[in-house]
Amino acid sequence: MNCHQALRGQKYRVLMAAGFNSKSAFNAAFKKHTQTTSSQFRKSDPLE
Question: Where exactly are the structural domains of the chain?
Fold first, then answer.
């Protein structure tokens, strides 16, 4: 397993722990509340 695969696995475990039963369920909820996708959100660098 490489670092990228390990990170994806960690993200998936966090989604499950937060109560989402799938990645698509998380993505739908994220977009509903932010009006953007999680990928677009990460690319926008909201902390700057």
Answer: 3-43
4-31 residues labelled b (16+ CB within 10 A) or e (exposed): eeeeeeeeeeebeeeebeeeeebeeebe
In the 3-class helix/strand/coil scheme, how is 3-33 assigned residue by residue?
HHHHHHHHHHHHHHHCCCCCHHHHHHHHHHH
Report the C-alpha dihedral over residues 47, 33, 9, 3, rounded to 10 degrees: -20
DSSP 40: H
DSSP 34: H
Give the model confidence (pLDDT) of 19-33 as tens digits: 999 889 999 999 999
In this prediction the pTM is 0.67
